[in-house]
Each structure stands twice: as structure tokens, then as C-alpha cells.
Write a structure and sequence with these properties.
It is a single chain. By secondary structure, the protein is an all-alpha fold. It has one domain. It contains 5 helices and no strands.
């Protein structure tokens, strides 16, 4: 097996959804700027486009079409996600610091 083949095998183990990706039959297309429209058409019929997009957002993929989104579209989507996250409450901050016993929240006991 070639080095590239080994790399892809390792990625398939780490991200099993890749085995079902429609783009496996079109290697390279998703990284060719002249083929963006065609790549997006492949993504439309892909059964794992949500997992693919999730991976790209988590990994901060800077190139290529992932889950049907271009890098610019993913950046905008990530910004929307970030803006939509609620601000942490005081209790959540205390819990993260390991100080949830600040007296503001009484522990609930269920005597069952």
C-alpha cells in the first residue's frame, strides 16, 4: 500500500463516515476551484454530507468543498454558530471552575 493509501485507510478508521462519501468516486474535484458547482452537485446526493460538514467545521478545514459548503460559506456558518451560542450563566461558570457550592444554588435531595 502506498503512503497515500495508508493515510486514507487511517482517516477511514478515524472517520468511518468517509467510506460512504459520494465524493470518493471523484477524487480531487472538491479541491479544484473551477469545479465548485460540480462538487456541490456531488454533495447534494451524498448520504454523509452532515457528518462531512461537521468534520470540516470542527477541523477548521480551509480548503475544498466539505458537506456542500465552500471555505467562505463554512466561515460564515461557523460565525453564525459562534454568535448563536448563549453566554454562560453564572452557575455554569462556577461549575467549570469547580466552585458550584457558592451558596446560590441549594443541593436537591430526593429521599428515595
Amino acid at each position: 500500500m502506498t503512503r497515500l493509501g495508508e493515510l486514507f485507510a487511517d482517516l477511514d478508521l478515524k472517520y468511518p463516515w468517509r467510506r460512504e462519501a459520494a465524493c470518493r468516486s471523484t477524487p480531487g474535484m472538491h479541491f479544484d476551484e473551477a469545479l465548485v458547482a460540480q462538487a456541490k452537485l456531488v454533495c447534494l446526493r451524498c448520504p454523509v454530507k452532515i457528518a462531512c460538514l461537521g468534520y470540516a467545521l470542527e477541523a477548521n478545514e480551509l480548503e475544498g468543498i466539505w458537506g456542500g459548503y465552500t471555505p467562505d460559506e463554512r466561515r460564515r456558518l461557523a460565525k453564525i454558530q459562534q454568535d448563536a451560542k448563549p453566554a454562560p450563566t453564572a452557575l455554569a461558570r462556577q461549575i467549570r471552575r469547580g466552585d458550584a457550592s457558592g451558596g446560590t444554588v441549594a443541593a436537591s435531595r430526593n429521599p428515595r
